Amino acid sequence: MIHVVVMSLFKHFLFFVVACFGPVLTVFCLWLDLNFFRDTVTEISVTEIVQELVLAAVMVIHFVLAKKYVPLRLCNILIGGLFLAMLIRELDAVFDTISHGCWVWFALTTSVIALIWPVAKWKTTVAQLEQYAQTPGYGMMLAGLMTILVFSRLLGMGELWNFILQDGCVRAAKNAVEEGCEMYGYMLCLTATLGYSFQLRRIAAA
User: Fold this and answer.
1) Chain-centre distance of CA 156, in angstroms?
2) I want to staple 118 with a disulfide (CB 3.0 to 4.6 A). Which of 10, 18, 55, 125 is the partner?
3) How many CB atoms lie within 10 A of CB 52?
4) Taking the CA atoms of the chain, what radius of gyration do you get in angstroms?
5) Percent over 90 (pLDDT), the chain
6) Cβ neighbours of 143 (radius 10 Å)
7) How far apart are CA 56 and CA 63, in angstroms?
8) Which among 155, 158, 182, 153 has a CA at the least distance from the CA of 170?
9) Per the confidence metrics, is the pTM higher than 0.85?
10) Helices 46-68 and 73-90 sit at what angle, rounded to 10 degrees?
11) Exposed, middle or buried: residue 147 (CB in 10 Å: 0-12, 13-18, 19+)?
12) In angstroms, rounded to a whole number, what is the distance separating the alpha carbons of residues 117 and 74?
């Protein structure tokens, strides 16, 4: 019994150690941009590129889970579609080479496609989302999304940083804080996704 408890505590501690990689990587990317590359965290920066890679990883993992685990397929399609739309938004500079602001149409198109099947079977979708809400990673996923969609946007308001800094460094400080918060949110989502993936594998193997 004690052995089981010790192993359980060790697993939780190991998860904590692995999860700490997220904030460490976030700060390291910001350090590279600001100190090494002398960049103000623009569209083409280490921080932005890593954000896009993390988004792509979360999206791909959920689409793979949708293919492998039928009981949670619709839920994973929805989550994967959400992160695909977010990835398209992050790649707005690329889509601007086609036409300014056209990323909106690509994001809307992919969102509609991802919604068709889950909406058609909405009762099953709701039941699967309820199951997902019971998983340990659900809270972390919500925290990540709130950090990305709400906190980073509010903290990155230009008016706030004009008030805090009045020495001409407003742009660099604003970008670093906003993009840093955003990337940390993405890392939370990735950590939640990996934990969720491992949980499904354990359930399938049981």
Assistant:
1) 18
2) 125
3) 16
4) 19
5) 62
6) 17
7) 11
8) 158
9) yes
10) 160
11) buried
12) 7
The count of other CB atoms within 10 Å of the CB of residue 171 is 14
Angle between helix 2-19 and helix 170-205 axes, rounded to 10 deg: 150
Q: How far apart are CA 81 and CA 64, in angstroms?
A: 12
What distance in Å separates the CA atoms of residue 133 and residue 75, rounded to the nearest whole number? 10
Instruction: Please check the confidence at residue 3 and state whether its pLDDT lies above 80.
Output: no
CA 175, 180, 183, 188 dihedral sign is negative
At 121-179, the pLDDT tens digits run 999 999 999 999 999 899 999 999 999 999 999 988 877 877 777 666 667 788 888 99
Dihedral sign of CA atoms 157, 147, 63, 17 in order: positive
